[in-house]
Design goal:
By secondary structure, the chain is mostly beta strands. It has one helix at residues 401-404, and strands at 2-8, 20-26, 40-44, 52-62, 66-76, 84-92, 95-106, 113-129, 156-172, 184-189, 192-193, 209-225, 228-244, 255-265, 275-287, 294-307, 312-315, 321-324, 333-335, 349-351, 353-365, 381-396, 409-420, 423-432, 435-442. 1% of the residues lie in helices and 56% in strands. β17 (312-315) and β18 (321-324) form a beta hairpin. The longest helix is centred in the last third of the chain and has 4 residues, at 401-404. The chain is globular.
């Protein structure tokens, strides 16, 4: 689950200025990007119960949030066998948060419509935004905050609180593998499929699952500094289409997926920005078979391309550049953080266009160190996975090929992942030229 925050600084009695910033704190969710997944139910041979559940306490410490202690819980199959309910509550120092979510509820027991809703409220002592002040122009010798060649120290920072929620409706199209049934069913032993799946051809009308997605998301934020209390909001819409013909969407070892989407944020309700964004994402998976120490060896590659048609750059009489009709810095063409360019700060780079590629080598180990540790059985740990990965990409003020393919930002990393209660949990360590980042998340990044 993610808390996404939009801030519009307004005039105060001390200082007359306006700041527009969007800030984000993330608590992991059941699904990663893109915002849709094949609908399915899982039966683990190690569990004869009709549902999976997990309660997991956690603690961490960061510069932005301080020391935080919390507990997360999830359950699958409570009401419908594919439906997941999850939540988390945490606090510590000046940070507090509460999140609740419902995933893949089959609407009124219909065959093909699925509804998901997630929401979160939180209080944070330190929020950072790589974004310029609204109306602030940038000179050719001083890049705009968040641009590809911007300074690491060029950001807005303050304490604040946020509220966030979204609702998503998905329709599984009646063709391909979902022609008769909208949901897939998987049998697992040791976290792997019990039956070998033959590589499916890329043919949406014959193989794989296609899903239409309609998502409406809302963000509210209060941003506090010495000048006073400031607030803002976003109300956005997204329409997308996913095609997936992988063998097992939770942990694919073969096949591919593609996602295309259009996002629009109109000037309505409390939202002050009007912007659009188009994106295309593709992933491909190759199975290398088993070895003496790994029961799975997988090469996973991913690419993402995005463009904001509404984004406009204008020049004043002095030759300075002013941006308008642009997506907020954590929406649209954004890199950095838990999914893309993990070696950089969250939403470190942002512009009109974006390109990104990554490759991962995933080894599912043949050794489970807690398989016979009775007091850890509540984790339902099926396997551990080590992953090595490399990433590259950039944001750009133009969609021109020569610009997009030059001056890339890169990083490398290693990850430890586990399949627990049917969900992938990952701990990523990534190194870039701006430092080292650590992300604890749920789900593969793609």
């Amino acid at each position: 689950m993610k808390i996404v925050v939009n801030c519009y600084f307004v005039k105060t009695s001390v200082s007359l200025f306006l700041i527009n910033a969007m800030l984000m704190v993330t608590i992991s969710a059941v699904q990663a990007k893109p915002p849709s997944q094949v609908k399915f139910s899982v039966q683990r041979q190690e569990n004869t119960k009709p549902r999976e559940s997990l309660i997991l306490p956690y603690a961490f410490s960061t510069d932005d949030m301080g020391t935080v202690i919390g507990v997360g819980a999830m359950a699958t199959g409570l009401y419908q066998k594919q439906m997941t309910v999850a939540g988390t509550l945490y606090g510590g120092g000046e940070s507090t948060g509460l999140a609740l979510s419902v995933w893949d509820y089959r609407v009124l027991d219909s065959e093909r419509f699925f509804l998901s809703a997630i929401g979160m409220v939180g209080e944070y002592p330190l929020l950072r935004a790589y974004a310029p002040l609204p109306g602030e122009s940038s000179s050719p010798t001083s890049p705009r905050a968040g641009a590809n060649d911007s300074s690491f120290d060029d950001f807005i920072q303050a304490s604040g609180s946020s509220n966030w929620w979204e609702v998503k409706l998905e329709y599984v199209l009646p063709w391909g593998s979902a022609e008769k049934y909208s949901m897939a069913r998987y049998q697992l032993q040791g976290g792997l499929l019990t039956e070998e799946v033959e590589q499916a051809d890329w043919h949406p009308f014959n193989t794989g699952t296609s899903i239409l997605i309609a998502r409406q998301f809302n963000r509210y934020q209060q941003y506090r500094n010495e000048e006073g209390e400031l607030s803002g909001a976003v109300h956005g819409l997204e329409l997308g289409l996913l095609y997936d013909n992988t063998d097992f969407p939770v942990n694919p070892s073969q096949g591919s997926s593609q996602y295309i989407a259009f996002s629009y944020n109109p000037q309505w309700l409390e939202s002050k920005n009007d912007w659009t964004f188009i994106e295309l994402e593709a992933s491909k998976y190759f199975s290398l078979g088993a070895t003496s120490f790994a029961k799975q060896n997988i090469i996973a590659v991913n690419a993402w391309l995005g463009y904001s048609p509404s984004w406009q750059n204008t020049l004043d009489d002095a030759g300075n550049s002013l941006v308008s009709n642009n997506a907020p810095f954590l929406e649209g063409a954004t890199l950095g953080g838990m999914y893309r360019l993990r070696g950089y700060r969250q939403n470190r780079f942002h512009d009109k266009a974006v390109i990104y590629v990554t490759a991962e080598y995933r080894m599912t180990l043949d050794y489970n160190p807690i398989a016979n540790v009775r007091w850890l059985n509540f984790l339902h740990l099926d396997w551990l996975q080590t992953v090595f990965y490399v990433e590259g990409g950039r944001v750009s003020p133009t969609f021109h090929r020569d610009t997009l393919l030059s001056d890339w930002k890169t990083d490398v990393g290693i990850s430890l992942r586990a399949l627990t209660a049917g969900i992938v949990v990952r701990l990523d360590f990534t190194r870039s030229n701006e430092g080292t980042s650590t992300w604890l998340m749920v789900g593969h990044p793609f």
